Amino acid sequence: MTAVVGEDPMDATGPVEEVGTSVEAVFREERGRLLAALVRRFGDLDLAEEVASEAIEAALVHWPAGGVPSKPGAWLLTTARRKAVDRLRRDRAYAARLAVLQVEADRAAPAPAADAGEELPDERLQLFFTCAHPALPAEDRIALTLRCLAGRTTPEVARALLLPPATMAKRIVRAKKKIREARIPFRVPGADELPDRLPGVLQVIYSIYTEGYAASSGPGLLRVDVAEEAIRLARILRRLLPGEREVAGLLGLMLLTHARRAARIGPGGELVLLGDQDRALWDRPMIEEGQALVVTALTGGSPGPYGVQAAIAALHDEAPDWPATDWPQIVALYDVLLALAPSPVVALNRAVAVAMRDGPEAGLALLDELAGEQRLRGYHPYALARADLLRRLGRRDQAAAAYREALATAGTEPERAHLRRRLRSCE
What Gene Ontology molecular-function terms does this entry list (predicted)? Predict the structure, then answer.
């Protein structure tokens, strides 16, 4: 590898012209692992981020001269560690503040050796659980996961979550301060803790995906880069926890849903509902991968919520067209999901499935039973579902009122345009 100034040279490979692309690819792939290894070693997230960035800057300076190292992750880790040590030597007060944290980290597990030729250890699982710790507010967990594990800058995280950069910066600083002051351990929960902690990690990833696949606001319905980042995080978690069926379920759910992305938007950017989509546009290899994950998620014991949701998504993707959808089986799966994870939103989705199985009157009766649910107030899919069923029943005045209610709370312009079209059809 190319030498860092003042350090021993290491073997390097790769043509100079590929360095710019390679650095970006290496940073994207290795940043989470690098950050996790540094947090594990030094016990401070801010320091880890700073020296990781400095190591990347050093790579941009030195790799063009000698090529991309054969072990780029190890090169970055060694460089970052040395920069951290230099920083601590210069700042005695900072070193004293870290001393307690370092003692605690060393008690948890032995620190990895600083051999420049070693492989970069994959300690991202610890980082997943640190970023998604239940002591942090839910919105802080999402922001920190995007910042640390997805490698997004603070402005990028702000754009992903539709917040001003200054607000996001404060949120990330607050989360780091909470981790530091509460001494949240950087570790994987024990076997007895994992069932309680893993759902929080999965929820963070799914929340990121949901914002990408169905944006809460803005000019577009899809934010493909955000959705695909969530899928990448789920793939990492799947590699780290291959025996956890709910991890397979979550990844399967996202793949089976994301496979339809090209068909959800029309030529003019308009929303295309599932029943009207051109299924030839669906990503069949992604569907096949998702189907295999559903089998894993549902095999070997009682299913979890993500496994059941993935099974529902698989039934939609397997149907050759909208009329051929297996609505009885979908309703049965919603019954299971409602027992596993009862919520008004699950009940809403079940009511829509019942309407497809038994007719709009049956579905509308179930929706009316949910009218008093606080969580559904201002939730435009509820008003939209009522409006569509009322329209199918020929009750156009009531349908128009429900479309207006949905229009008042719809977040994206394609959704609002769809609702305006439906409203005009009733008026």
Answer: DNA binding; sigma factor activity
